[in-house]
Automatic annotation (TrEMBL):
Residues in Radical SAM core domain copies: 182-405
Keywords assigned: Iron, Iron-sulfur, Metal-binding, Methyltransferase, S-adenosyl-L-methionine, Transferase
Family matches, as CDD domains: Radical_SAM, radical_SAM_B12_BD
GO molecular function annotations of the record: 4 iron, 4 sulfur cluster binding; catalytic activity; cobalamin binding; metal ion binding
Reported cofactor(s): [4Fe-4S] cluster
Keyword Methyltransferase carried by entry: yes
UniProt name for this protein: Radical SAM protein
Domain B12-binding: 31-155
Species for this entry: Fibrisoma montanum
Pfam family, one: DUF4070
Domain of life from the UniProt record: Bacteria
Any single GO CC term annotated in Swiss-Prot or TrEMBL for this entry: cytosol
The UniProt record lists the keyword Plastid: no
């Protein structure tokens, strides 16, 4: 191997802890809830693996994950004697990231930060980093490292304000999956699209980093091949916000997926239910599950959620669409948000009934959360309804961070806990799994009939 002149350690601040103690205690006994948090914790940071691929040849790159900050984990990084440390962090762990970054900088190590939170609030991050990457990092990273070598690092590099840094289809490289200790993961991530055109008011992911973009199918093929080099039978979770927006492109993607031996999962909107050919290709490509943001079990809460009320117009089709998608043998994980301004006490019992009637194979319940950079954040801030100026460690999706319209904070918390308790009760989870298994059996029987 060539001798490298410089070394960068890329640190992913993985794992999110729920603040609400009652929910946490409850969560420990909730199979669906615990399973899901384990899955999230075991995903590597694709953003860091991607910029790693764009490093100049004279840089050695290491990848580390910090689920918990311990003196041993800090020593582990320091022992590498890095010239530069780059962090990617979620909002819920940004305070820990800032504290750790401050510590490394006091030791004279250059710190760079990127990711969703600092892209939304670069000014907040700047006192904790020598340089902040706002938006997409592929084209910024090599320039930033070269600037570091020449002692001319800029405080902010932004693909949002400087379009020359925005990702283009001719600038992609295969993420450095080879940097991972592969035995630690039960899933690997692959990105096929970035952003989402629906623009929901609470969604940070859909536009903070980039507008909606698709990767060329040939590039996705190269990235899949790289995954198969490190893992023969992978389970792949797409790091997309909304994969099947462009149906023709999606069909090409699914034909490619069908040529690989893998199981996979992604997030989509419910429009896939209207395209039989796409559903057939989805089933044939071994898609295990799609996660769909249904958002609510009552239509009025969807008013104004996305730019053109598209989700509101789909609401009446929800039950039929879920049934249709699952009839292809694809499990649907339906996501619901509690705490909209139109939600009342009845919304909780209504949500429980809706979930039962839907026969969703899996369910995700979350509390409405105003992430920085979203329209929801701006609205609640303007209305003086945020519970604190910075409440980032409570941005877990399970903690209440604002004054709800029709409840006190305590009421929203306790109604949410109650709903979690019934939706994730062992018996109810088992019943959902049993019903979906029956759907699979019916599908096999009808295929062979
Ligand atoms: S559909 Fe999903 S990914 Fe798209 S903007 Fe809405 S919440 Fe975000």
């Amino acid at each position: 191997m060539l001798k490298k002149d410089f070394k960068a350690v890329l640190v992913s601040m993985s794992g999110v802890r729920v603040y609400n103690q009652k929910l946490l205690q409850l969560g420990l006994t909730l199979p669906g809830f615990v399973d899901r948090s384990k899955v999230i914790a075991s995903l590597p940071s694709l953003g860091l693996l991607t910029i790693a691929a764009h490093s100049p040849d004279n840089w050695a790159i290491l990848y580390k994950e910090l689920d918990a900050i311990t003196e041993a984990s800090i020593d582990d990084i320091l022992n590498e004697a890095p010239d530069l440390i780059a962090f990617s962090s979620l909002t819920a762990r940004i305070n820990e990231t800032y504290a750790l970054a401050d510590r490394f900088r006091q030791m004279g190590i250059t710190v760079v930060m990127g990711g969703l939170h600092v892209s939304a609030l670069p000014d907040e991050a700047m006192p904790h980093a020598d340089s902040v990457i706002q938006g997409e990092g592929e084209l910024i990273w090599p320039e930033l490292l070269t600037d570091f070598q020449h002692n001319r690092l800029k405080p902010v590099y932004s693909s949002l304000t400087n379009k020359q840094y925005a990702y283009r289809v001719d600038c992609h490289k295969v993420p450095r999956y080879d940097l991972l200790d592969i035995d630690k993961y039960n899933r690997l991530t692959l990105q096929t699209t970035r952003g989402c055109p629906l623009d929901c008011v609470f969604c940070a992911a859909s536009r903070t980093i980039s507008s909606y973009k698709k990767k060329p199918i040939a590039q996705i093929d190269r990235e899949l091949a790289a995954i198969f080099e490190v893992w023969q039978r992978p389970f792949i979770e797409l790091a997309d916000d909304n994969t099947f927006v462009d149906k023709n492109w999606s069909k090409e993607l699914l034909r490619l997926f069908a040529s690989y031996r893998m199981k996979w999962f992604t997030e989509t909107d419910i429009s896939i239910a209207q395209d039989d050919e796409l559903l057939e290709l989805l089933a044939a490509s071994n898609c295990a599950q799609v996660l769909i943001g249904l958002e609510t079990a009552q239509a009025m809460s969807l008013t104004g959620v996305d730019r053109n009320n598209w989700k509101l117009r789909q609401f009446d089709t929800y039950l039929k669409s879920i049934e249709k998608i699952q009839s292809y043998g694809i499990s649907v994980n339906g996501c619901f948000i509690l705490g909209f301004d139109t939600d009342t006490k009845e919304t909780f019992s209504h949500t429980e009934q809706f979930i039962k009637a839907s026969h969703l194979s899996e369910v995700q319940l979350t509390v409405l959360t105003p992430f920085p950079g979203t329209a929801l954040y701006r609205q609640l801030k303007q209305q003086n309804r945020l519970l604190a100026d910075t409440y980032w460690d409570k941005c877990t999706l399970f903690d209440v961070t604002f004054t709800p319209a029709n409840f006190t904070v305590d009421e929203l918390e306790s109604s949410f806990q109650e709903l979690m308790g019934s939706v994730y009760a062992r018996k109810t989870v088992a019943e959902r799994k049993r019903t979906f298994k029956q759907t699979l059996t019916n599908k096999i029987t009808s295929t062979h009939a």
